[in-house]
Design brief:
alpha+beta, Ubiquitin-like (UB roll), 3 domains, 7-stranded mixed beta barrel, 5-stranded antiparallel β-sheet
């Protein structure tokens, strides 16, 4: 038989197989080693196309969802999330979600069920997320959540790895995850209503985003230029929110007064309150360690960074600001690094409150104490047979199917530097080891936030700029007089650093110039 004949025969056999599956009431893809979510969406191919083509995620589909587990499934990594087969879950809707990830062929989704359901032991809720995890390991968001739980950060979103089939089309590996929202099984803080307008009710709870994308009634700025937005409650009626000036002014005033205390010389604001009375310092320390250690590219500069405020503390006093929940760590844990490299420094993330607090001896002591706890969790993660190994083993088979489905996309996203699974898992392990080594060797630099660079050019007044400690300086970014070109960049000992240098102390850089050729 010719090659064309073989292809035609294969198509016929595949069609017959699908018909037999349908006749038998079976799914066209059966669970192998991970649970499978089957989405049976109304409207067929046209409805799915419209949903996937909706840039603002306004197009929604309805239908039903089944979760089928393979024989012997013990609940996933470590047996943490058991789940039996569940069929016929009605969808209030499914829609697209995400910003940068939405532009890729494999789409992430938000699901709302008609009834609250406890999926994988994660608590009853209607709202769930199917994350695509755009990294070659698929596990960076998972290990971040695991780390948050080990450190004791409250309300860390957790999830389970699944494979997804939508209207008989296999879509690959997804991470079924809790959505960040105020609820008893999510961010379990008191929920405000539109009618709450006086103390003590308006003390909380509040869920706050950093650098929200949307302009409008929910966005505000602190005196140290921190852009924040009120996630819940929203004070924008056009976005399912409500108008309540008392709540809005309370939370903005509280955050500003907390910032004032952080930047006060004695650590107390004009009202006499210390920053430790308004901010839960351990949650901030742990949150920062995860951001800084993993070198998360989204840290403190996108709306994936969150904090929340409780109404009361356990002792009945006014609630503090807490940092979390953790979210969106695709761009972390060495995802952008080549093998054998090392990320140095304690300033890979920037948050003005942390830059100020790291100058305070009492907060530095807390950071050092939490580093010891952090390292114990790293041991558990990276040891032989630990979290990384268990996760690799669980996903190994499904990753082959993922690459069969989306290999071309992964090659386009990662280019020639793509590391295949499980090599990417080993890359994460190596990145952790190198980062950990640097930190342990440089803990004396934990309080170093910035250094002064004096730029000296003959005939010009010295320019002094503040740069992050351990940051990399590219001398060719320095402006020289018009009509001149830089010929050398000299440190005080005469070393020419035209290829760049790292800021490890206050430094004077002399730029030698010569007239440009006509």
């Amino acid at each position: 038989m010719s090659r064309k004949g073989h292809i035609l025969a294969g198509i016929v056999l595949a069609a017959l197989a699908l018909m037999l599956f349908a006749a038998a009431g079976a799914e066209p893809f059966e669970p192998v080693d991970l649970p499978v979510i089957y989405l049976h969406l109304d409207g067929g191919e046209a409805a799915v196309f419209a949903m996937n083509d909706s840039a603002d995620h306004s197009v929604r589909c309805t239908g039903k969802m089944d979760i089928v587990v393979p024989d012997g499934y013990d609940g996933g990594i470590g047996g943490a999330y058991p789940q039996g087969t569940v069929k016929g879950l009605k969808l209030d809707y499914i829609r697209g979600r995400g910003n940068g990830s939405w532009g890729n062929p494999k789409k992430p989704y938000k699901i709302k069920l008609e009834e609250k359901t406890n999926l994988f032991g994660l608590g009853k809720n209607k709202h769930w997320v199917l994350m695509t995890n755009y990294d070659a390991s698929q596990i960076r968001n998972w290990i971040t959540g695991w780390m948050g739980e080990r450190l004791g950060l409250e309300f860390t979103p957790m999830g389970a790895f699944v494979e997804v089939v939508m209207n008989d089309e296999y879509l690959g590996i997804y991470y079924l995850c809790e959505q960040i929202r105020i609820a008893k099984t999510r961010v379990a803080i008191d929920e405000l209503t539109a009618g709450d307008s006086s103390l003590p009710a308006i003390q909380g709870g509040y869920l706050i985003d950093f650098f929200p994308e949307d302009e409008g009634a929910d966005r505000f700025e602190t005196e140290h230029l921190l852009q924040l937005g009120s996630h819940t409650p929203s004070f924008n009626p056009a976005d399912d929110g409500y108008e309540n000036e008392a709540q809005k002014q309370y939370i903005r005033t509280f955050i500003q007064q907390a910032e004032d205390a952080v930047f006060a010389a004695d650590g107390r604001n004009a009202q006499g309150r210390g920053y430790g009375e308004m901010i839960d310092l351990q949650s901030l320390a742990d949150y920062w360690w995860i951001m800084e250690f993993s070198c998360n590219g989204d840290a403190f500069r996108t709306d994936s960074t969150h904090m929340y405020k409780k109404r009361y503390e356990a002792d009945g006093s006014e609630g503090k600001l807490y940092f979390g929940p953790l979210w969106d760590f695709d761009d972390a844990w060495g995802n952008w690094l080549s093998d054998g490299t090392q990320q140095v420094g304690f300033n890979n993330s920037y948050f003005p409150w942390m830059s100020e607090l790291r100058k305070k001896p009492e907060f530095l002591a807390l950071l050092r104490a939490r580093w010891d706890v952090f390292q114990a969790a790293l041991d558990e993660m990276t040891r032989e047979g630990g979290l990384l190994d268990a996760t690799r083993d669980e996903l190994q088979g499904a990753m082959g199917r993922e690459m069969d489905r989306w290999g071309e996309m992964w090659n386009d996203l990662n280019g020639e530097s793509l590391r295949r699974f499980p090599d990417e898992v080993e890359h994460i392990r190596n990145t952790i080891a190198l980062r950990r080594q640097w930190i342990n060797e440089h803990m004396d630099r934990l309080g170093m936030v910035d250094f002064q660079l004096t730029i000296r050019i003959e005939g010009q007044e010295d320019e002094i700029v503040s740069l992050p400690a351990d940051g990399w300086v590219d001398p060719f970014m320095i402006s020289v007089p018009e009509g001149w070109e830089a010929t050398a960049f000299l440190l005080e000992d005469g070393t020419n650093v035209e290829n760049g240098f790292r800021m490890e102390q206050d430094t004077t850089l002399t730029v030698q110039c010569a007239p440009m050729d006509e």
